[in-house]
Write a structure and sequence with these properties.
By secondary structure, the protein is of the alpha+beta class. It has two domains: 3-74, no CATH class; 89-190, no CATH class. The chain is 60% helix and 11% strand. It has ten helices and six strands; from the N terminus they run H-H-H-H-E-E-H-E-E-E-E-H-H-H-H-H. Strands 3, 4, 5 and 6 form a four-stranded antiparallel sheet that branches. The chain has a two-stranded antiparallel ribbon with strand order 1-2. Strand 3 and strand 4 (116-122) form a beta hairpin. Helix 1 (3-16) crosses helix 2, helix 3 (49-66) crosses helix 4 and helix 5 crosses helix 8. The longest helix is centred in the last third of the chain and has 37 residues, at 184-220. The protein starts with a helix and ends with a helix.
Length: 221
């Protein structure tokens, strides 16, 4: 049996068995495939090498749940600030390609500070038009998305409005596509504040530990 045939059989066993983490044999099969993927220069850097193997296994599990190619998931599942997130283009492509709705479209009005947008599509089985929440530049500014340094909301607001409207629509009508994860644009916009605040929290904790340690040393002497 060739190595390629062995790997193909392992992938078939892993996919047919219900997931990467459903048993020891499935996990061992997944590791064999994962090591091959992690050694490729074609996968994103977060999945490369021994350190990226765990990320590969998680991506394979998600791919199994969504009935997608592991490579397709890895190319569209980004790790931003340590959190997995989908690309907005991937979510839009999943909605447009699932066969349950007409292609996602957008109602865009206004410009500049009055810009607003909502996504909509028609459910083919019922003929019902499904509208997502309205996204506006006023909302982006109130939420702090458009005021961060280097924010894409400042340079390409039309595109960002569409991306956010598509993410909101997907979260309402096809949450199984997002599997509880935000889009990478949402993570960049929303999570940056938490990441910026984290170092000060860690510094305060370290200072507290140091102070308590000094006090204990003084008590001993």
């Amino acid at each position: 049996m060739t190595e390629q045939t062995s790997a193909s059989n392992a992938l078939a066993v892993s996919q047919d068995s219900g997931g990467v983490f459903t048993g020891i044999q499935q996990f061992e099969n997944a590791q064999r495939i994962g090591k091959a993927l992690a050694s490729s220069a074609l996968v994103p850097k977060e999945y490369q090498g021994q350190q990226g193997l765990a990320n590969v296994l998680v991506a394979m599990e998600i791919a199994n749940r969504m009935n997608l190619s592991p490579l397709q998931v890895m190319q569209n599942l980004h790790i931003i600030h340590g959190r997995p997130s989908w690309s907005s283009q991937f979510i839009i492509a999943m909605i447009n390609g699932c066969g349950r709705f007409t292609p996602l479209d957008y109602n865009v009005t206004g410009e500049g500070d009055t810009l607003s947008c909502f996504a909509y599509a028609t459910e083919l089985a019922t003929g019902k038009e499904l509208r997502g929440p309205v996204v506006t530049m006023a909302m982006a500014k109130r939420e702090g998305w458009a005021t961060k340094s280097g924010s894409k909301w400042q340079t390409m607001p039309d595109l960002m409005c569409r991306y956010r409207a598509a993410a909101f629509w997907g979260r309402l009508y096809v949450p199984e596509f997002l599997v509880g994860m935000k889009t990478q644009e949402e993570v960049i916009d929303i999570e940056t504040v938490e990441v910026q605040e984290a170092p000060s929290i860690v510094a305060d904790l370290n200072e507290k530990i140091k102070t308590e340690g000094d006090s204990q040393d003084d008590a001993v002497w």
